[in-house]
């Protein structure tokens, strides 16, 4: 691979990062990249440094190209999406907790098992944490879908949150459990806070990824 080709590829990578951040969908990014590659390779063929064509800040050049092309830009609104998703997840968790407490006797009567039946600990833990995760995911997805219904491509975001949040929360719960197990499950604020932070970080990362996937996918 020639030096000029490497330089062109590097500049296109920087430009594509900028276009992604602007919320330009994949189809338009491919078209913009093809046009920009043709210009840069032509400049290189004429003996010019491709970087000189873009100036000191390649990302600003990428922004100007996008504006001149008039491509659709979808604002990611990461802050809004993450805030609403977090609020929805917390609210659904509180409502679920109140419902379980209120219907405790009914649950006990419905699921009371004979003393001879022993439920494996891993199964009981899986049902408990799986139920909590399902409530959080449902609340977060519903909150985003309803509260941000006027935001562009929010339906796609909600659908992809429903796809990404469950495995993210499952992996984070396992990681938090492993962290607690390694320390012999201490009930200290630092340990509990760390475990909660692991799960929260996975939740926010999955929600942000779902929004990024939505706004940068092919239109």
Order of helices and strands: HHHHHHHHH
Q: State the separation between the terminal residues, measured CA to CA.
A: 33 Å
Tell me the total number of β-strands: 0
Strand content: under 5%
> How big is the Rg?
24 Å
What's the total helix number? 9
Shape: elongated
Describe this structure in words.
With 219 residues, the protein is mainly alpha-helical. The chain is 79% helix and 0% strand. It contains nine helices and no strands. It is elongated. The model has no long low-confidence stretch (mean pLDDT 81).
Structure summarized in a few sentences:
With 219 residues, this protein is mainly α.
Summarize the SSE layout with pairings.
Layout: H1 3-21, H2 26-45, H3 50-54, H4 58-69, H5 78-102, H6 104-111, H7 121-147, H8 154-182, H9 189-216
Name some characteristics of this structure.
79% helix; mainly alpha
